[in-house]
Design a protein that fits this description.
The chain has about 140 residues and is α+β, with helices and mostly antiparallel strands. It has two domains: about 90 residues, Defensin A-like (2-Layer Sandwich), CATH 3.30.30.170; about 35 residues, no CATH class. Helices cover about 25% and strands about 25% of the residues. It is built from three helices and nine strands, in the order E-E-H-H-E-E-H-E-E-E-E-E. The chain has a four-stranded antiparallel beta sheet, with helices on one face. The chain has a three-stranded antiparallel beta sheet with strand order 5-6-7, with no helix packed on it. Strands 8-9 form a two-stranded antiparallel ribbon. Helix 2 crosses helix 3.
Amino acid sequence: MRNPVNDKFILPPVQVGRIGTRRTAFLNFASICAVLKRQEKQLYEYFMVELGTTASIDGNHALIIRGRFQPTHIENILRSFIKTYVFCKTCRSPNTLLGKSDRLTVIKCNACHSQYSVSNIRKTVQTHNGSHSTAN
């Protein structure tokens, strides 16, 4: 979403709530994904990797994360995702698409038409016994 006055990228504030004592809900997850023009799956996988825990998307399209996390922690991870997977590194425009090309994850900028590869969002999460497993 762009502000028509100064053409800046505006993201709605992150809405986080608790579910019981062991889960955190990212309530406006779907609307954030829509503003960023990213699939829910892409941001969902990024959060699972960065937080090192499991998560799911409920019927209201909220991200339900296992564990207790502060809103600032969720915001910092979201900022990191935006910096890496949304803003064009050439012109800094948020008008980009994230996709696959020849097994590489690429960002295509609709503003300056540049295209470059970015690192894949790895799906490695820590299991209960402390070892790592890779989900396919």
